[in-house]
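User:
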Amino acid sequence: MSSLRLVARNEWQLMRRSRVAQIAIALLLVLAGIAAITSIAHRNANDDLRARFQAQANSEFDGQPARHPHRMVHYGHFVFRPLPPLAAFDPGVDAFTGSTIFLEGHRQNSANFGDVRQSSLLARFGQLTPAFVLQALAPLVLIFVGFGLIAREREAGTLRLLTASGASPGAILGGKALALSGVAALMLIPAGLALLWMMAAEGAGAVAAGSLLLGYATYLAVWVAAIAGVSAIASTPRAALIALLAMWAVATVLLPRVAPEAALSVDPLTTKLETDIAIQRELREIGDSHDPDDPHFEEFKTSVLQEYGVDRIEDLPFNYNGLLAMEGETLTSSLFDQYAARETAQEKRHAAIVTSFGVISPTIALNRLSITLAGTGMDGHRRFLEQAEAYRFAIVQQLNQLQAEAVTFADDSTRNSDPVAGRRVRIDPEHWHEVPDFTYRGATTGERLQAAAAPALILLFWLLVAGLFLREARNYVLGAH
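Assistant: Predicted structure:
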């Protein structure tokens, strides 16, 4: 048996006899198991609730009585974002962004009902999920188990005995790191079992789940190398523990909170109130379809009359009010899309800045990789917003077209003064069944892998740096500074 494996086996025996190591590892495994079970249950309950509410919203929309089509435009509709299967592993930004949008004519509403807005402030400091356990708690346990790997041996004076038995400094350090890697692998077991369950029961993609587990294994390998290297360089176990705890605090607590603030300071966000005011100002400039004397829509009416070769809108072969509503919705939706595109571009710049902080914090790199592969990052939220807006525009225009085709201009113009006309403009409610249901389409595995390329490369960079650091630390095993 090689000296490296002998050192590793001896270290495992020491860990088994260490009450601190046993308790720390056992607690982490229990926490990881509880996190996996509760997170899966929470995700499934939330997803079922959203599906039930979506079915209820669809049923209530289809079950509306005979109405004027434009009344249905303002009646509106609710759409809910379903949760991806891997949200049980890493919920990402879902708790902060909201899960439902109210769709109505002439407006583009934001998502509402995020869990954080409805729960205590404790929800803002991290949920107990497999991702949180491995990102924040697992490195901490590895530190308490492994901070004395080499420093303890040096302080006890047993390193010389190991070298006298034929073990080289590289074999000693490698064996210690191998033993700690076994502990890290043990920590991954609950997460691996949770991912297998998500693949089998929830339909999570094997490639995405496997890539996720590989990312976390790489992250823990970085910490193993850092812990073993620091323990080799530090003069005492106490110095090693203090240095490693400082590294953990900066990498997992401080920098993940500093990075978003840095992105905001570089590229400040416009508040929702400022955006709403700007949109309303531009809406007044482009025209108001409800104002018969508006210059833009007066010109639009003239062009329509010329196109159909008539002198009056009463002579058009359709209800002009419906066509007017369609034109107004096209203009307002175009403006909404412009502002949404600007906001999306800014969010992408912020995400790039935060990802770049992964160069100084492997936790940030892993977090970006994790939420991207799980489909729970801002990319997934933006996809929901974009698809919901496209759906809103489609159903509003479908209802406006019904106004143009199923309601006469004469009845439409006199519906408020003539009770008979008011009854005739209420069309058959069967038309509401023709409006398609909303279907959210998440990113494909290929799209998620492509989006995760940048944080994955940063994580591999950290693995390379950790490996080089561990290699250099061999020179310090015997105290040769």
